[in-house]
Amino acid sequence: MSKIHVAGLTKSFGSNEVLKGLDVDVAEGEVVCVIGPSGSGKSTFLRCLNKLEDITGGKVVVDGFDLTDPKVDLDKVRQHIGMVFQHFNLFPHMSVLENIMLAPVELKKLSRPQARNKALELLERVGLASKADARPAQLSGGQKQRVAIARALAMSPDIMLFDEATSALDPEMVGEVLQVIRDLAAEGMTMVVVTHEMGFAREVSDRVIFMADGLIVEEGSPESVFGAPRQPRTRDFLAKVL
Amino acid sequence: MNPQELFPLHILQRAGRRLLALTGLLAVLALVFGPPASAAVQAPHSATGKTYVIGTDTTFAPFEFRQGGELVGIDMDLLRAIAEKQGFKVEIQSLGFDAALQALQSDQVDGVIAGMSITDERRQVFDFSEPYFDSGVQMAVAETNTDISSYEDLKGKTVAVKRGSEGEAFAKSIAGKYGFTVKPLDQSATMYDDVKAGNSVAVFDDYPVLAYGIAQNNGLKAVTEKERGSSYGFAVNKGNNPELVQAFNTGLAELKASGEYQQILDKYLAAPESAGKSTFWELLTQSLPALLKGLVLTLFATGLSIVIALILGVGFGFLKVSRRVWLRGIATAYVAIFRGTPLLVQAFFFYFGLPQLTGRPMDVLTAGVLTLSLNAGAYMTEIVRGGVQSVDPGQMEASRSLGLGYFKSMQKVVIPQAVKIMTPSFINQFVITLKDSSLLAVIGFAELTYQGQQIYASNFRTGETLLIVAALYFVVITVLIKLSNILDKRFNK
């Protein structure tokens, strides 16, 4: 059974339909990169996967939970889905450590000392152990995003969603963040990555989805999408960005 | 700054000897709902042993005014002497003339004695005692004025009168004949200041009031004999407390027979103790105890109101950012009502209007705090809404994406950031509410401004007294702002 199952997903903001019927399945351990021009609905699609956006029509099943079913406890489902945002969204009134400890402690998944150890371990993993007591404002963009990834990992999710995680970064900081994502992929984490980093998408993904105008135009292995795109829209887009 | 700060409160302060209809709204409400059931005629029984709440003017020297914090004057001495003779107790509430009449109509008080002329108009709503004082109008000019000594000298000039008073009626009746202009003002002190400033050349006022003011060095001198005028009476609400009127009449007759009545009058009129012009320092030391008492009440009412307003503001503020339309509707309606009406009207409504609707009296502190807290609560609601909404929505999303629920996310992520944003506005609202509390003087709430009005209405030193009052507000507010900023810096790093 697939880890994420999306069927006929539509999403409208008022009369503006931004997703026009998407069908996607993501297998356990699979890394899927979503590319496409801005305004194509990539981010909206991603945000539907943990229901940060209300779903207008169709079905989204994550870990066997149907997100469109009003009886499903969304907070429970979300604990298994880590999400990383373009603008980091770190909590500015908390230290780095507190940012990471918040969810495990508040949701009583871990005791405070356990959560603290886990947080330190995660910081070690993203290379920021020395910044545990810093405030987000004292970090660089790349460091902030690595903390955000550590925070998303604190609940030990089995799915990670990346929403243009490197778009707001200065070029010299993109690499350090991509490295962390690369490591996660190597560990077998199921991931959906919305990105503008074509080289990274080609390197890290098992499958690439190209979206335009709220539809999936083309999908396949990175070699086929990047190497031999079949659709004119895809070719057009890749010609512009590569 | 709140728009209601711009309302000049003195306009609604005691407007002289007349019945001022509060607002059309209240009048209509009173008509629709009628007087409370207790207004039914009761069998007369003895007043002995009972305690009556009696409303009076704030300051209408020499009938009622404060001396060393105590209410004294002809009305007060007469009433106390009668009560003692007749064996009942009185609790005096110094409300202001219009407020006292409103309070009487809404059964907030049992009787009113306030140098009130007995008129046919008033007889329709009140029952009066026998007249206890015969008044009359007299003309006065500035001490230094030697040009005007009779009505004939007024040709082409302007004279000041108290709006709605007998003085006004008399002045108007002869204005055509002598060719002068009548300028109605609201308070005795204001009229005297107007004459001294040279805006008017003379003033027509009740002779006892004038005599007392002159004895207090108000800078005027009387130049004509008094005209025959109306009589003052003690009033109860129509059909209510007949035994109280009975007791007043009996007691008055006894006082007249024993000569005590004349003694009381002489004490204030025949030989008023002439007060030498005191220095500013003496004024300060004399008025400070009463002003500090008012300041304590100002701070108490403001403090209590701001705490309630904070609770209301947080409650309604969160309704306002709720996802449910009807919850937002409740909060929007609340804010619209209390932000969309003047604080002054709200104060009148809670103190006079609501008791008439419910038949349940409300004391002035409750009404005052209710007004301030509901009003400030509406502004707090908007502060809270603004604060919560100014937190980046990404913060809520990040928290929700971790699996934290809506309320947990609010509590741990949004509110701590919102509070930091809101703190300066909170401090600002606190200061505004403190200043707004001065408006409660109009319902007789004895806070700082009210105490100041009391003082200058009897010593006629308006400017200096208001300077002291303003200085007290300024010092307290400055200290509070400094304190708040220190706390803000400490907790919102």
UniProtKB/TrEMBL annotation, chain A:
Keywords: ATP-binding, Nucleotide-binding, Transport. One of its GO terms (molecular function) is ATP binding. Residues 4-238 form the ABC transporter domain. PROSITE patterns: ABC_TRANSPORTER_1, ABC_TRANSPORTER_2. InterPro entries: AAA+_ATPase (IPR003593), ABC_ATPase_HisP-typ (IPR030679), ABC_transporter-like_ATP-bd (IPR003439), ABC_transporter-like_CS (IPR017871), MetN_ABC_transporter-like (IPR050086), P-loop_NTPase (IPR027417). Gene3D superfamilies: P-loop containing nucleotide triphosphate hydrolases (3.40.50.300). Pfam families: ABC_tran. PANTHER family: AMINO ACID IMPORT ATP-BINDING PROTEIN, ARGININE TRANSPORT ATP-BINDING PROTEIN ARTM. This is Peptide ABC transporter ATP-binding protein. It comes from Arthrobacter mangrovi.
From TrEMBL, chain B:
It comes from the Bacteria. InterPro entries: AA_ABC_transptr_permease_3TM (IPR010065), ArtM/GltK/GlnP/TcyL/YhdX-like (IPR043429), Iontro_rcpt_C (IPR001320), MetI-like (IPR000515), MetI-like_sf (IPR035906), Solute-binding_3/MltF_N (IPR001638). Keywords: Cell membrane, Membrane, Signal, Transmembrane, Transmembrane helix, Transport. CDD domains: PBP2_GlnP, TM_PBP2. Residues 295-485 form the ABC transmembrane type-1 domain. Its main location: membrane. The chain crosses the membrane at residues 295-319, 331-352, 466-487. It is found in: Cell membrane. PROSITE patterns: ABC_TM1. Residues 1-39 form the signal peptide. It is a multi-pass membrane protein. Belongs to the binding-protein-dependent transport system permease family. This is Glutamine ABC transporter permease. It comes from Arthrobacter mangrovi.
